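batch job 7 of whatever, protein = Glutathione S-transferase kappa
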Amino acid sequence: MSSRLVLHYDIVSPWSYVAFVTLTRYVKLWNMEMELKPINLGYVMKNAQNKPPLTVPNKGKHMGGEMVRAEQFFGLKLKMPKEFPFNSFPLQCALRVLQDDHPTRLHSATAHFFQRVWSGEEFDLLSVEAVGAELKKWGELSEGQVGEVVKRAGLKETRTLLNEEAKKLVEDGGAFGAPWIVTTRPDGRSVSFFGSDRTEQIAAFLEKPYKGPMADGRPSASKL
């Protein structure tokens, strides 16, 4: 058995984006794969009886500065969308369909939507049809495949599945937010981590090298 890493994420979460980018760098260095699990953060928060950070005034104020520092530290664009938080439900439903129907395309699609949302440019992803239009721009599925993804993303069964998986992640896995990262060593021991700043601890648990946020030895992408 080899080491395993599972990232549970929602595109609406900037820290899910940071974790996705950082762990993508590290799984290459560690010669292992990262399994992606799209979730609905709203369902997770509801099942865990948790509150969004922006509902706490001081957390909301602090978040802006944290995002600026994260952008510099991790070397990625992290601009607050004009409308935030936004309803990511249609998008997460589409990604959940991709997980089942086109698993080899999920990483690329996830990267595309993270970049699209957090680039600072305007976007419309508030309906499955709008998500479908963006999937066509992404360009890695045929028009027929995009149509099928849109169709399934709009089904009640897909929404129910996301709710059931969120409930299981909370009740069985102890989750309360995103990103939620589950790591398993070759000896079978598993540990869950919450947040985008746990890579050093993950490396220690997996007994893998840690080389900073860029995974190349640099202390940061630029000065803070």
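notes: The chain has a mean pLDDT of 95.
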